[in-house]
Design goal:
The chain is α+β, with helices and mostly antiparallel strands. The chain is built from 16 helices and 15 strands.
């Protein structure tokens, strides 16, 4: 314990000296040499940090390591999980019996530990093996990993990527992929949040079955009409919109978290009357008021209206009475998503949570004591010692267990108007 603290103190002092040094005292060519040494030192520190991650253990009251790591280092949980995965692949491993094992990517791990690779190099190598078909044998895999690690030490990541592509073709010249290979690659993801103009960009990797079904749908509903000025892409977009719009609210879809599968939208009376501004969905999407009004007629959605001045709930429009499910709709409208600090999980994927006292411990299902929490954060309260409570302004405060280096407080992510001090907005 003392040795690493002393070493970190010395490192901090050395960094201060490097930061205070003037690179301009060197001749121009030698400045690049100094920058190279600095880059090497930074990479070594990152590699050492990853290796130390393999020795971090949970203790009593401590949530899963990636959650603590994210708060302690102030990085995203996705980044924390990625660092843990990198450590598992690049750092030596220890079995439960104490036996030392080499890294999963031994040649890459050795170069990484020596400070010869950047994170981008590692991403290229990881992607190569992630995309490699299952029929490639272990001998070829070992040779490929060693080859890529060697080339990574002399190439930029973009150059290494080209080598990796050539090597992938060499190992799979006939382009054979199994059902499992294709299934592993399928997926749809939004590429970030909404853009400034309200539009969103997504990436779809479709398996043959999905594409064949979409092609059949597009043949009918994306076909050009007379005097149709839309582009091919715009027609396909509108065809997908029709496909989803005609299905939302259908009783055959069942329920999600106790509610019909449809849109739940929040707005203020003032914006609704003016026909301007934005409504907010339980998925966290800003919906222009003109779109909301246009969508209101043909579809069965749920609309919660608040007073834009007092925040008082005024009206809940719905296609049928839902009894206690009305509470969930108003919670989705009020909180919009998980209330745990920094959590971005939208309302659709959140659960109802008793803020003061859990129901199984005698808490009441009172709307003033209910809030929203995603499944992971709900488990923090049930199993990891977190506590929650309602503030006088209606926000939910989260408190970590004592002695655990986690960040508590409230969550403003789903309410960007609070970031600007517009507290009267819902």
């Amino acid at each position: 314990m003392g040795s690493i603290v002393a070493a970190l103190d010395a490192l901090d002092a050395a960094i201060e000296r490097v930061g205070a040094a003037d690179i301009e005292e060197l001749p121009p060519p030698e400045r690049f040499v100094a920058l190279e040494r600095l880059e090497h030192a930074v990479r070594r520190q990152v590699a050492i940090s990853h290796e130390q991650l393999t020795r971090v253990e949970r203790y009593e009251g401590c949530p899963p390591i990636p959650i603590v790591l994210a708060d302690a280092l102030r990085i995203s949980r996705a980044a924390a999980k990625r660092r843990m995965r990198d450590a598992e692949q690049l750092a030596p491993r220890t079995t439960l019996t104490g036996e030392q094992l080499p890294p999963l990517l031994p040649a890459t791990g050795k170069a990484w530990d020596a400070g010869l690779l950047d994170g981008e190099h590692v991403r290229v190598i990881q992607k190569f093996f992630r995309d490699l078909p299952d029929h490639v044998g272990p001998v070829e895999i070992e040779k490929a990993e060693r080859t890529l690690a060697e080339h990574a030490q002399t190439m930029r990541p973009d150059q290494l990527e080209k080598i990796a592509d050539r090597l992938a073709v060499h190992l799979n010249p006939d382009g054979k992929y199994s059902e499992e290979d294709r299934a592993r690659k399928r997926g749809f993801l939004w590429c970030g949040g909404q853009r400034g103009d309200g539009m969103s960009v997504g990436k779809l990797v479709a398996d043959p079955q999905l594409r064949s079904m979409l092609e059949a749908w597009f043949a009918k509903f994306a076909a050009p009409e007379s005097d149709d000025l839309r582009s091919h892409g715009q027609r396909q977009h509108d065809a997908l919109s029709r496909l989803v719009r005609d299905r939302l609210g259908d009783p055959k879809l069942g329920q999600h978290n106790g509610l019909p599968v449809t849109m739940i939208v929040t707005t203020t009376l003032q914006d609704l009357q003016a026909g301007a501004g934005h409504a907010v969905t339980a998925g966290g999407i800003l919906l222009p008021m003109t779109d909301l009004i246009r969508m209101a007629t043909p579809a069965n959605h749920y609309l919660a209206v608040f007073d834009g001045v007092t925040g008082q709930s005024l009206w809940l429009g719905r296609s049928k009475r839902l009894a206690s499910a009305d509470q969930r709709i108003m919670l989705l409208a009020k909180y919009r998503g998980c209330t745990a600090p920094g959590c971005t999980v939208p309302g659709y994927n959140s659960q109802v949570h008793h803020a003061a006292k859990d129901w199984k411990h005698g808490g009441t299902t009172d709307i003033d004591d209910l809030t929203l929490a995603c499944r992971c954060d709900n488990l923090l309260v049930e199993n990891e010692g977190w506590t929650t409570g309602q503030l006088s302004n209606g926000q939910t405060a989260w408190h970590p267990p004592p002695g655990v280096p986690l960040i508590g407080g409230t969550n403003d992510y789903h309410h960007p108007e609070r970031l600007l001090g517009d507290e009267d907005d819902p």
